[in-house]
Amino acid sequence: MEFFDSHAHYNDERFEENRDELIKEIYNEGITKIINAGYSLESSKKAIEIAKLYDFMYTIAGISPNDIEDFKEEYLNQIEELAKNKKVVAIGEIGLDYHWNTENKDLQKHVFISQIKIANKLKLPIVIHTREAIYDTLDILKNKIKCEKNGVFHCCPLNVDLVREGLKLGFYISFAGPITFKNSKNADEIIKMVPLDRILIETDSPYLSPEPLRGKRNDSRNVKYMAQKIADVKGISLEEVARETYNNTKKIFEIK
User: Fold this and answer.
1) pLDDT digits (tens, 9 = 90+) for 125-153
2) Residue 204 and which of 11, 63, 104, 214 are 20 to 30 A apart at CA?
């Protein structure tokens, strides 16, 4: 049984001490494909360099809404150049975040839309981060700019409106650790809403470790907990969830 972790951050400093050893161990435990996610100019560069070391690792390049404090327009040109690398399979993670930042909403929207334009130009999907900004995110996708290749709601907030509208727009829904949390109120309802052929699974490592590992450094081996939760809710086998989510991730990111 093989798993695809559709979103992790092995470019994070928390992996500096044992990154190579850990990634090889993860692969040997059945997580045979990983997407290493950028979230700023520098982290995107680092994600690509790490991904070059492993045949089974891919990456996404982009500037997240939490990393635009020193934003300059020239950064967009640099993201576009990075995204031409053969290891890059999407523009991301990009989007809106009003939990941490409310004073720069207009800039967030500008950077989000600008990076969707880059994705359209390069014929790449997008990977969206949205937090406490669901309706502005949907407004952009529905009314401001069309995504040529659609994409993924990464670590998708468990919000019925977002999932329903995201599915209508053709997006995939990626589930992370929060679906396993004991205080997650509507995880089961949301999982039931999403057809199996539109689900991805991810760890968002090193963050958001699933139950029963909360508080520990997360890594891609724990993607199995999300798969098991989905299998339990949908009443299907773990093997089926692993197979379908693996194929879904290859499909949206056009990985052969």
Assistant:
1) 999 999 999 999 999 999 999 999 999 99
2) 104
With residue 250 as reference, give the H or E element that holds it.
Answer: helix 238-252
3-state secondary structure of 81: helix
Cα(first)–Cα(last) distance of the chain, in Å?
18
d(C-alpha 47, C-alpha 206), whole Å: 14
State the total domains in the chain: 1
Place of tokens 């997650």: 184
Query: Is the whole model's pTM more than 0.90, yes or no?
Result: yes
Do residues 120 and 147 lie in contact, with contact meaning Cβ atoms separated by under 8 Å? yes
Q: By the 8 A CB rule, do 98 and 134 touch? A: no
Q: Could you tell me where the DSSP H helices lie in 159-237?
A: 160-168, 187-193, 223-234
In which domain, by residue range, is 61 found?
3-252
Per residue in 167-202, pLDDT (tens digit) is 999 999 999 999 999 989 899 999 999 999 999 999
Helix (H) or strand (E) holding 77: helix 74-82
Residue 201 CA to chain centroid, in angstroms? 9
Mean pLDDT of 15-40: 98
Place of tokens 């470019």: 11
- Please give the Cα distance from 9 to 76 (Å, whole number): 21
Which CATH number belongs to the domain containing residue 85 in this structure?
Answer: 3.20.20.140
Q: What is the mean pLDDT of the chain?
A: 97
Q: Are 46 and 236 in contact (CB under 8 A)?
A: no
